[in-house]
Structure formats: structure tokens, C-alpha cells
Amino acid sequence: MRFPFGRGKRQQQLDQEIAGHLEMAKRERLDRGESAQHADSAVRREFGNVALVQHVTRDQWGWLWLEEFLQDLRYGARTLQKNPGFTAIAMLTLALGIGANTSLFTVVNAVLLNPLPYPHPEQLITLHESKPNFLAGSLSYPNFRDWQNDNHSFSSMAVARSSTLSLTGLGEAEQVNTRFISAEYFPLLGVNPVLGRTFTAGEDEIGAAPIALISAGFWNRKFARALDVLGKTLNLDGKAYTIVGVTPADFDLFQRSAHVAEVYLPIGQWSNPLLPQRSAGLGIHGIGRLKPDVTIKQASADMQGVTNSLAEAFPDADKGIGATLIPLRKEMLGDVQPVLLVLLGAVGFVLLIACVNVANLLLARSSGRAREFAIRSALGAGQGRLVRQLLTESILLALAGGGLGVFLAQYATRAALRVLPEQLPRAADIHIDTHVLLFTAAVSLLAGILFGLAPAMKTSQPRLHETLKESGRGGSGTRHRAQGVFVVLEMAMALVLLVGAGLMIRSLVALWNVDPGFRPNNVFTFGLALPPSLLHATPAAIRAYVRDLDAKFAATPGVVAASQSWGAFPMGSDDEQLFWIDGQPKPTSENDMKWTLSYVVQPDYLKVMSIPLRQGRFFTIHDDEHSPFVAVIDDVFARKYFGGENPVGKRIRLDHIDLSGNGTLAQIVGVVGHVNQWGLGSDDTQQLGAQMYLHALQMPDDYIATVPGGGGSFIALRSNGTVPSLLDALRQTNRQINSEQVIYDARAMDDIVAATLAARRFSMILLASFAGLALMLSSIGIYGVISYVVGQRTHEIGLRMALGASRTEVLRMVLSQGAKLAGIGVLVGLAASLALTQLMGSMLYGVSPTDPLTFAGVAVILTLVALAACYIPARRAMRVDPMVALRYE
Amino acid sequence: MGNRYQNRIELLQGTLDLLILQTLRWGPQHGYGISQAIRLNSGDILQVDTGSLYPALHRLERQKWIAADWKVSENKQRVRVYRLTAAGKKRLSSERSRWAQLSDAIAGVLEPAKKESEA
Fold it and tell me: Does ipTM top 0.95?
């Protein structure tokens, strides 16, 4: 082994050293009177082969520290082998700590750290319209085209709109996830087709020829990767599209694997008649790529100018409309980042506790090794050398623990992925890679140094005299104190984690007790893609078809009631409606109109959802297209827009449900309870509280005509819970109605409600498992220390008992020592928690970060567990036989 | 010169270390000085080969038994001067006692009668 660095310098020094030797030998010969020439050759002969001498000398340089390190490593491995019990416990403890960290880091690495898979991802900005009620509202198609032309900050802009279309003529009819996109979409992201081409400029205009892109997954599923797929046609919602290209599998802008689209169509192909309307917010959102060196601030200022001039040119539609620019990364990770960082902090605590535990084990063991080190020290080993050897040992232990930890992390990560909320972006990327392994290696090394250093310092300073004289109890005083400090730290950290988990559990309990305003149990929902033949039917025919649908589904065995739901649906979709009070002049701009959520349903909807009727009446079968247009509002709507007045009988004008422009007159006939629209945790934080119900079959012809091709049908029904396989029964009913009609996205309402809590539940499960781990490790810690202390004090305890102390007094003495440590730990932990739980603010619901009940409860639990852990060694102390204890030694 | 080769004794493994350490006992010395001192003190019998001396010096330095400094000699020559460290002193005494044991042992083998009478 050769020294790889500083070799040149050492070689130079060796040259000089030998030159010096030759020079001095020559000088001596010259002094004796020899001739210069003779002296020179004699000296060289005497010295021998200079190069050979240099060579054999260089061989001695070696890599000393490495040799010593290898020696330490061998010695360490042997020591660990000799104590399999200690080694197993320490390794397992570390493996749990490191494994938990590794699996969480695997998630953080994939979600937060890995760059987005697009070229120059930092240039990608999502684009939205800011409206008085929404900071990030959807973009209208004409505004998008003007933004595209008028801005100076973006090298490219694109829009996309998700939809589901019915695919027919290619196997069994089905619904496919579709995105309507502008031509720039894929080139802007730098995503290339795997086959064929993407759309070119102009092909995305309204009225252009119908063409389509399919995803590689769809290509595989439907065409078995046949290369002649280009040019084939795809029948979507009854329209034939020519396939021009295949996009990469799994591509989704936000990397949510659950949302991957299978078909892309040009935005101009969207059949929504409102598409060319400048004021229509249709769920279209944009993405832009900043020009190089343009900051988001400059771009915002630029867009401000663009939207201002549009507001001047089109005051009706664009007054008060601005542009909201959000970096893609932030839009994707906004809610996830703080949660993951809190969890990472929590899991870091678990590792610290594991380290402290192992440090304690090492300290306890060091008393047994005191003589070994005293002897080595007496034989001339310096303290540094001893510390290095002990550290090598602890790092070896940590690396072994780390290896086992990675192994455990593989399973833990797989388990975590199962409880992971569906909305988590980039979930598909989560796997153990080199980054994760490097992280684990670094964490293990650090852990090894961390838990090894204190015991190493203590052990390597043996009191030579005392130890060698075999009065080995000398060093135990300071060691005992250090162990006490460790236990206090451990207890404190465990308490912080328990408080965090406790707060999350209380939040979830609070959320489960939130009244959503409807009864989700036994409610079942599904989408229904209507048969393409209905696309060209008259509004009257569509109404008749829908009426028949509801009746047939309601008649399915086990079904109590069924209703269409075309607009908003609680915790599913949202749909806003603009209106003004009848009798007042129509506001000049949309921004001066009033807003409400709009639910377009059938008479049985109230029964399906079990929403209470507060006043007046709900829809009946006597309300139809020929009777006066009626609306039902919720109590929030009533309070917000009518104050104390009785809303029943009032009339409002609804904007844009027909194309007349005068608004549709609707009379309010009833008031119902408010429902939770946005999810259990977030309803009261949303601005848009007012809710309105319209009768599906009373909707104007213009609206009805869009139903078969646009939103399709969405059915909510209540079952009596007696039919075990309701979905099969529904499918059978469906087949009887029309074989080209597809049921999709069938879900139990209970699951939909639970999904709104998924992110919090995920955090809760993780925090609770970390806290459980922490509780276990710290109980083992306090158990170990009290056992050690009892072992050390056997002699003293025996003496006390011989002098008349009772067994209960001994028990109390030992327990009180444990209680003291636990108590101090709890106090420190409570103080730390007060500061740290503030970081969890956004994850909590209905409970304050300093909730006294949680703090007190957790403190009691931790103290009890600690005392239970001390009870085992305390009982051992109680059973000490004074005769045996005193005779020993 | 023939005399020199006849009387030359091959040094035992490890003996050179002892000789170097012992030589440095009397003060810092450079490589040439060490070889001269060993030669003179052994009455010209022990001739240290440079191919053994320098590796030994560098090995002893690595083991921290001796340390080296650069000095400038009277005739302005930069020379590397070795000195004994604390660890080296300890090593020297243990090597010396080992040597004493060894020579006693060898003497005992060569003259068994003497050994018995001592015991």
C-alpha cells in the first residue's frame, strides 16, 4: 500500500537526505586529504545503489492510518463477535432507527429532492386567472390565446383540460381519461412522443381536423404496440379521431400516477359550446416556460400589463381578472413539503433515541472493559488511539445496523406506500436508490460517531491505579451520571413524539366528528357514460332517457333512492354559478355578481344524501320542464344573501345556464342544510360557502344538450345495505338499459369522505408508529440504566436490608430513582414540545398545538411506562438476599 | 579492506532497530552520523548497509519511536536529523531487556553448566 498524496514532496526530501549523506561522507574523505575525484567514487561505491536504497526506503512509507484502521476493524469485529447478545440488541436498535429514517428519506428523496423530469424544470410555471373569489381560477380559452400573443416573458405557453370520454368500437365500451391540450403542451415540457408526432400549431384551433395522441400504456393495452397504429381511428364520444402519435407511458404533468391520461386531443376539439366565450371558467389551466434569465417576478409584472389591457378591451369579461403564476414545483408539492419535513424531523428523533440507547449500552459495557483499556494504556497506547479504536467499533456497529436498517426499510417503504394518500405527487418514483443508500451510509456513520463518542471518551480515560488495583467501582460515578443524562434526553424526545402523535390523533377524532351535513353511509356513487347514440338526440329525448335511468336504477334490488348529480358533488367535484337578485339590474361585470356552488339534481337527491329540509319544500316530480323554474338554497346562502328575510318565494337570475344572456329566472322554494363540500378538514376555510340546488330536468335545453357529450351522468344512490354486491346488481341494470352505456369510477361515499382525510391519516399513522418506536426504545433505555444501577448497588442494598430496611422500602428507593429520571425527562420534553408542535399547525384540526389534555395525557402515559420498565429491576433489587450480597466481594 | 569483510557480521532481524535507538540515546543525529557511530562503537565490525539503514529509519519514524527534523549543517548542507521520542525511549528499554534475555538465553545454550549453577 503506497501513500497516494504528498508523495512528490516526500520523494524530494528523500533525495535531499541521501544527497546530504553523500556530501558529508565526501567532506570527511576530503578532510582526510583524498582527492575530490577519488573521494567521490569511493563514497558512491560505499553507499551502493542510490535508486535501490530509495526504493526499499519508500516501501516503508505505507498507509499507516489505514493499517491501524484495519487492525481496529479486525479487533472491533472480534469484540462484537464475543458479545453476541450486546451486539444483537445494539444492532437491532440501530436498525430500527436507521431503517425508519431510510424509509422516510426514500419518500422525501423521491418527492422533494429529485428534480422534476423535465429540462430546466425551474422555468416551468403554472398559469391561472385570479378572480375576486379565486386566487387560482381557471383560464378561458380566448384569454389564453391573448396571453400567449401579448406576453414577453414566456418562451411558450400551453393549456390543458381533463375530461373523460367514452371509447367505443375498440373492444368493450369504456371511459378513458382524456386531456384536451393546446399544441405547445408537449414541446413546452420537453416530452417527446415515443412514436409519431405531437400536435402542431393550428391543429389545436377550433374547427381543425380531429386528431389524437395516445399514451404508451393505451397503445400497449389496445393495440399491442402495433407500429401501424398511426393513422388508425379512435371513436370517442361518437367522433372519429385519427391517431398521430404515442406519448410516453405514465406521463402526467404533476406526476400523480392515479391521474395519468390515456388520450390527448387538441383543445379545439372540445365540444363544450362555451369554449369560445371569454368569460367562461371551464377548468382549463395553463403551464408556461419562462424565457431564460426571466424571473417569476418580472413575468408577473409583464402579465399584469397583459391582463390590464385585456380588462380594458373586454370589460364585461375581464374586469378584475389577473394572472396568477405559481412555479410548477410549488404547485405540485405545496401541501406535501411541510408535512414531510415534520415527519422527517420526527423520525430523526427516533434515531437519536436509538443512538442514546446504544450509547447507554456501551457505557454500561465499558465498566467491564475498564481493565482491558487500563492495560493497553499502561502499555503505551495514547488516548487518541484508544478513542479511535472505540469509535471504529461503534461505527462498525452502526454500519451493520444501517445495513439491517436498509433491509427493514424496504418492507417499511412498501408498507408506507400502501397507506400513502393517492394525491401524493410522484408516488410512483418512490424506491430505494443510490441517494438513499448514501444517505443511510452517512446517517449510520454519523450515528456511530454520535453514540460512540461519549462512551469512548469515558472509557479511554481509565483511572489506571484504581482499575488495576481491582477496586473497579471507582469510575462508575461519572458513568452513572452520564447514563442519567442520556435517559432524561431519551424520555424528553419520546415525549415530543408522543405529543405530536397525540395531537394528530385528536385532530383526526375531531375530523371524524365533523358533521358533513349528509349521511355518507350506504351512499354509493358512480359515473355513467351515456351511449353515443344520445349525442344527437333532442333535449326532450335526453330528459326522457335520464328520467327513465333514475327510475330503473332506483328499482334495482337493494336501492332505496337514486338521483342524477350534474353540477357540484360533495367532496367530489365543484361547479360555481353566478347570479343576481331579480329586480336589480344585471351587474355589468361578472365580478359584481354573486357566487354560489351549484348542485343540479333530481327530487330524490335529498333522500339519497339525507340532507335535512329546513324550510319550504324540495323538488318533486311535479317540477318539470313545463312548470316554473325553481331553486332550493342552503342555510348559508339564505344568511349570506337574504340576511334575516325569508328567502322562500324570492327570485334570482342565474347567469349563463342558457345562451340568452338575460339570465334564467329561478324562484326559491325551499331551504336545506349546508353540506360539507370541500372535505372534512377544510370546509370552513373555503370562501365559497353558499350552496344552491337546481332541478336537473328543468335545466334549459342548451344545458341539457351538453349532458351526453360533456359531463355525462353521475348518479348517487342510497342502498338499504342488504345487497352484498350492489355494484354487480347495478351493472346488470345498466346492461339492461343500454349495452353501450358504461359505469365507471364507482365508489362508496364513506370512502370518498375518508379520502379527504388520507393525507392527515398518513401523517398520523407515521407519527404514531414513530412515537411507539420511541416509547419502546426509551423504556428499554430506562430499564437498562436502572438494571445497571441496581447491579452496581447490590452490595449497598444488601447492607441496607441487613440493617433493617424492608423490601418495600428498597422497591420504593429504586422506583423513585427511575421516577426522578423520567420526571426530569418529561419536564424537558414538555418544554421542547411547546416549541416544536407549533411546526405542526397546518396539520392539526380542532386542537391547539399546545392542547393541555394531550400534553398531560402523554406525560402520564410516558411516566407510567417508564415506571413499569423500572419495576422489573426494582423487583430484582427487592429480592436481594443480604447474606449473599454481603458475602460477595 | 579484506579484514573488514571477514569480520563483518550479518545483523540479526530487529537488532538494527535497537542499535539505531541506542545511538540516538546520546542525542539527535543524521543518517550518515548514525551509520558512522555504529561502525565506530562496534570497532568497525558492524557495518550498516545504507539499503538497510534508511528503510529502518523511515519505519521507526512511522512507528513514532523516532522523529525527524530538517537542520542545516556547518557546511550549509540541509540534513535530516533524527531524535528519540518518548515512545522510542520506552521501546529502547524494552528492546534492551529483550536483548539481554536473548543473549542470556544464547549464552545459556552455549554454556549449559553455567546456567545450571545459577539455578
Answer: no
